[in-house]
Amino acid sequence: MSFQIECPECGCRPVGEFHFGGAVRERPEPAAGDHVWAEYVYTRPNIAGVQREWWFHRAACKQWFIASRDTRSNVMQPAQTPDSQEARG
Amino acid sequence: MTDHNAPAAAGQFEFLYNGRPVRSAVGQTLAGALHAQDEHILSRSFKYHRPRGLFCCSGRCPNCLCTVDGEPNVRICITPAAPGMKVESQNAWPSPKFDLLAVLDRLQAFMPVGFYYKRMYKPRRAWPIWERVIRQIAGLGRIDRHNSGGRYEKLNLFADVAVIGGGWAGLHAALAAADAGADVVLIDEQPELGGHLRHDPDLAQDAWAGMLRQATDHAGVRVLTSSSAFGCYEENLLGIRQGNRLIRLRANQVIVTTGGWERPLVFENNDRPGVLLASAVQRLMHLEHCRFAGAAVVVTDNAQGYRAARQLVAAGTSVAAIVDVCPGPPEFAADIPVFRGHTVVAVRGSRHVAGVEIAPLAGGPSQSIACRWLVQAVGFTPASALLYQNGCQLTYDPACDHAVVVQYARGMHSAGAVNGTHDPHAAALEGRLAGLAAAATVRPHDVSLAALLADARRRLDDWQARRATCAAQYVAESPAKKKFVCLCEDVTEQDLCDAVAEGYANIETLKRYSTVCMGPCQGKMCQAAAIALCARETGRTIADTGVTTARPPEQPVPLGLLAGRAVRLALVRRTPIHDWHERAGAQLTDAGDWKRPRVYSSVEQEYDAVRCHAGLIDASTLGKFDFRGRGAAEFFEFMYPNRFANLSVGRVRYGVLCDEAGILLDDGTISRLQDDQFFLTTTTGNAAAIDSWFRWWLAARPGLDVRMTNVSGSYAAMNLAGPRSREILQPLADIDLANAAFPYLAAARCIVAGVPAVVLRLGFVGECSYEIHVPAQFGLAVWEAVLEAGHHAGIQPFGVEAQRLLRLEKKHLLPGIDTDALSNPLEAGLPFVVRLEKPDFIGRQALERAARRGPRQMLVGFRMPDGFAPEPSSLVIHDGRPCGRVTSSGYSPAAGAAVGLAWVPAAIARNGDTIQIQVDGRLLAAVVHDAPFYDPAGDKLRS
Ligand code: FES
Ligand code: FES
Ligand SMILES: [Zn+2]
Question: Fewest CB within 10 A of the end CB: N or C in chain A?
Fold first, then answer.
């Protein structure tokens, strides 16, 4: 893994400066039931293709942002700051 | 052959070869010096201990591996000689010239391909013995455990364009890119630029010297010589070895102009010393000033062979014949007889070439020619490993008999011989085109560049000359046994045929079974022939046969290079009070990146001071966060399992953080300093993780009115604890500390020792205590002021060791020590922090399920009625089975016994239950103890 990530604050930096936060997913409603919750808590999608995911620039600006990455090639689309999209979590 | 061609006696010196002094000159390689001294057997082969000599002279084969100054497997043909060097042969005893194990060569029939799979698997217990024997016989050098290989270092570089290979194409590429304004790094593994031009003077054009000067002088070109690019990783990160330095070069564009290496033919005894590649001969002649005494035969399919023959003649070697595999009538080239349509089928001579046998390809009787040297010039295998590594797609092209790029990976280009373009004119055009194309990507708006690029492309298209395709057949047809495909691993044609017949017909399985391509050269010398053979034996085309996967490193890399001193030097954090601790003689311990005092005087003394008088501990390493905003209380309600909306101003509350699986992440305190202002602490070790955790949830809920600032480094903190702490702190503070005014779990902003502070009334160690947070720059001053004020009361600084014991007596857990990635607060003895009546919080669903299910294991306190404290991680045994473990333990003066915390099954976790702890193989009884061991009612910390 030696690709680079475009941080919205700091620009293009090596991936080692970032912390991967997993695919962007919808947190279930509190009453969604054990099955839905177990799925959310214990399984990860792990798709082969373009995926929206969280990245944290831990070594510099300490910002979380969402970027799309093709998991097959590690080619990334420009990142968005979380403010620019609807809230989730 | 001794000295008639040695360089001037000036700069001469000696090194030791197997204990014998060898004369050498500055600029010569070890191999060149040995050749000049007629030292031609340099090693013994891996399996059969056959004699081996110089073969490629370019660091691409296994034949010259020696141990140099204790470092094994050094290729002496690319290692400059230095005075006093100690060079030892490997895999030969007593010497490479006379090796007792050479008898193995006669036993070849007993070592068929895969022989250790076939012969040595039964009986099973014999394998360790066999293994030892095989390791003795086969193998490379020995590792000298006392030789660390010196110091290694790392360097990061950045460039617009990296050009790998400083040959004709590379020089053109680098200059074209640099002229177009790109910042270029030009990398070459040889000590000087030039590639094949350096040792093939007839190939070198007049323009060569000029190009070299331009490249070295150009302000836009940085030249790295003696540097081998061993890996090309994602997004054009290059791993480069330059001596003991690892260079990580990030380039926007990479131009691969690595050229190729010569491919050897496979015929009987093709591994005899005296059989060399033409470029090896040229290197020895032109770079090392060596000569070749006696007659030579050149086998070739291209112009390079004729050039090499002419150069040999010019240097005084008689060339007995040129064997040209391309068809045509016999003729003479410069008085040398040329046998067209012939190939070499065998070499005669047992320790060195004594003659060759050649035969017409069309069939017919063979004939012998006496000679001492057999020079092979039968074309090149492109050095395309770096292209493969970075994801370029290559396909075998029968027209040029090697793989060519059909699809480049992002930012990759190639030019010259690596593309199969050997003609200097064409290689120059290709290089220039690649350089311009790379520069154009870096400077996309340069219009003049676009014009230049179009021009270069047109010229290259115009150039129509194609290499006359008459590729030599790799493998001579003959029934002989000793035709080596893989020099590294001693794999013969017969071995490969057998392996294919046994079913290993896929090139990848053939490789793993026969070990072809798995030697020190990683297939550089044998891959092309192995594929050709596999194709022949399976009746497939070479394209269908495929290639084995190219992985970094392309050249061997010492582990020290990768492990060497990191660029990210280890971070050490010191608290603002650190120097004081050192002056006080504290023993320091690591806590994450921090250094913390472990103990100053003795744990007992420090313990006594806290329990009887007062103690002061530096707590600056805690994570500290400032939260503001009207949404903060609501945010904590969601983040923590317990309640925070009802926390009044001026109060502090303990809290644990869980993840969605209900696993306990960390604990700490939350103080409400004003209605919309909170001050949070986390443990030392989790500060960074919790910072990221909070930020993530905040990022995911951008609408909340919450602003978070990590003030961990901006505040120094200390905990003043003990029965006399109030009387010590009161004179320094501007608020009333009386118990009624500032009780247990009170929090306030105030002034301490003239400094603005946040003071929290906590009880981690079980006494009345004040956690004092002050701006970092005043940390030391306040620390000294408190100690001074407490002097008469017997205050003492205490370290983490005493703190651990003090809190253990209170059964206060340490996240990460007493808990792990399976611990939830319900089972960790903290059910009171989990408020399932709240509609939602992180981990609620998991904790609710866990509550429904009931505890499976519990973190409990235990007391050992007699006996000493079991080490943390000692096993808890139940019904003869391990079922839990001790997490903390120590001798508690308050309990008068050894006490501890342990995870045990819920069934035996009730107060008074007896558990068994394994200590040194014996089982010791311990009793589960629910209450704290010290001050069970908590009167002290409330007083
Ligand atoms: S002769 Fe040294 S590596 Fe081939
Ligand atoms: S010749 Fe080196 S691996 Fe086969
Ligand atoms: Zn950033």
Answer: N
Structural contact between residues B863 and B898, judged by C-beta atoms closer than 8 angstroms? yes
Cα gap B420→B422, rounded to integer Å: 6
A26 to chain B, minimum CA–CA distance in Å?
10
User: Which ligand lies nearest to the CA atom of residue B77 in the structure?
Assistant: 1
Helix B493-501 crosses helix B507-514 at what angle (to 10 degrees)? 120
Chain A residues within an 8 Å CB radius of B631: none
Q: What's the B103 CA to ligand 2 centre distance in angstroms?
A: 22
Task: Please report residues of A whose CB lies closer than 8 A to that of B661.
Answer: 41-42
Q: Is the peptide bond before B94 cis (omega within 30 degrees of 0)?
A: yes
Do B396 and B532 contact (CB within 8 A), yes or no?
no
ipTM for the complex shown: 0.93
Between residues B447 and B812, which one has the greater pLDDT?
B812
pTM of the entire predicted model: 0.82
Q: What is the separation of C-alpha B543 from the centre of its chain, rounded to a whole number of angstroms?
A: 33
Cβ–Cβ gap B688/A63 under 8 Å: no
Is the Cβ–Cβ distance between B191 and B288 less than 8 Å? no
Mutate to test the pocket of ligand 1, among B64, B74, B276, B283 (most ligand atoms within 8 A of CB): B64
Give B838 or B564, the one with higher predicted confidence.
B838
Alpha-carbon span B699 to B716, nearest angstrom: 28
What dotted CATH number matches A4-88?
3.30.2270.10
Q: Which of A49, A46, A41 is nearest to A68 (CA)?
A: A49
Domains of chain B (ranges; CATH) run 12-110 (3.10.20.440), 153-261+382-465 (3.50.50.60), 266-376 (3.50.50.60), 572-622+714-811 (3.30.1360.120), 623-711+824-852 (3.30.70.1400), 856-943 (2.40.30.110)
Chain A residues whose CB is inside 8 A of the B849 CB are: 34
Residues β-bridged to residue B277: B376
Distance from CA of A88 to the nearest CA of B (A): 5
In the prediction, which pLDDT does A87 show?
Answer: 39
Q: Is the CB of residue B162 below 6 angstroms from any atom belonging to ligand 2?
A: no
Give the DSSP letter of residue B754.
T
pLDDT at B471 over 60: no
Terminus-to-terminus CA distance in chain B, angstroms? 98
Quote the ligand 1 centre to B354 CA distance (angstroms). 21
Judged by a CB distance cut-off of 8 A, whether residue B837 touches chain A is no
Which residues numbered 11-40 in A keep a CB inside 8 Å of some CB on B? 14, 19, 21, 30, 34, 37, 40
Burial class (CB in 10 A: 0-12, 13-18, 19+), B905: middle
Contacting residues of A for B688, CB less than 8 Å apart = 58
Distance, CA of B671 to CA of B678 (rounded, Å): 5
Secondary structure, 3-state, B551-608:
CCCCCCCCHHHHHCCCCCCCCCECCCCHHHHHHCCCEEEEECCEEEEEECCCHHHHHH
pLDDT in tens, B596-622: 999 999 999 999 999 999 999 999 999
CA atoms within 13 A on the CB side of B937: 3
> Is-contact B278 B488, C-beta < 8 A?
no
Residue bearing the CA closest to ligand 2, atom 4: B486
Residue B888: which of B875, B899, B897, B904 has the closest Cα? B899
Q: Helix B207-217 to helix B168-179 angle, to the nearest 10 degrees?
A: 50
How far is the centre of ligand 2, averaged over its atoms, from the C-alpha of B147 (Å)?
27
B838-891: per-residue pLDDT in tens? 999 999 999 999 999 999 999 999 999 877 889 999 999 998 899 999 999 999
Mean pLDDT of B206-222: 89
- Residue A62, SS3 per DSSP: coil
Structure tokens of B168?
Answer: 């004709």
